[in-house]
Amino acid sequence: MDREDVVRGGAGATGTAAPAGGAGGRGTVTVPAAVLDPDLPRPAYARPGDAGADLVARAGATLAPGGGRALVPTGLVVAIPEGYAGFVQPRSGLALRHGVTCLNTPGLIDAGFRDEISVLLVNTDPSTPYQVHRGDRIAQLVIQRVEHAVFAPVGRDELGGSERGLGGFGSTGR
Q1: What does pTM read for this prediction?
Q2: How many angstroms separate the CA atoms of 26 and 120, rounded?
Q3: Mind listing the domains of the chain with CATH numbers?
Q4: What is the 3-state secondary structure (H, E, C) of 110-151?
Q5: Per-residue pLDDT for 172 more than 80?
C-alpha cells in the first residue's frame, strides 16, 4: 500500500458521488485517501452496512485517569468531496470497557481539510490509565452528505412559533 491509496466506494477516483445503489439502496462516495504510514491499514468498515470506518492510531499515547487526554494521529489524509463532511465518532467498545471516548465529538472534517486526521481521546475512568498502542482502532470516520445553508436575515418575531418555543437546555425534563 502506498501514499496514494484511494478508498473506493464505487464511483471512480473523481471524488464525486455515485448513484444510489448497492446493498440496502445506499449510495457510495469515493474519498481519495493517502495513508502516511505504509504499515497502517486504510480506513475499513468492520461489517457490510456499517456507517463508520475504523481509524487507527499512528502513535501510542498514555491517557491518565480522570480526564487525561491526548491528540492521537491516524496517519490518514483525505480529500472529502464538496457537499460531504467527515465526522469522527467514538468507538462504543472503548467507551464501555475502558471509559475512553473522543473529547470533541463528533469531530468535524470539512471538505477542504487536507492535513492528517488526529483524534482527541479522553479517559473518563477515575482510577485506571489507558495505553493507546500504535495500530489500535481508536475511532470511526463517518462520511455524510451535508447541505450548505444560506442564512436569511429576519427579525426574531418573523421566525414563527414552534412546539418547543424557547425551551433550552433541560427543558424536556430529566
Answers
A1: 0.80
A2: 30
A3: 37-147 (2.70.40.10)
A4: CCCCCCCCEEEEEECCCCCCEEECCCCEEEEEEEEECCCCCC
A5: no
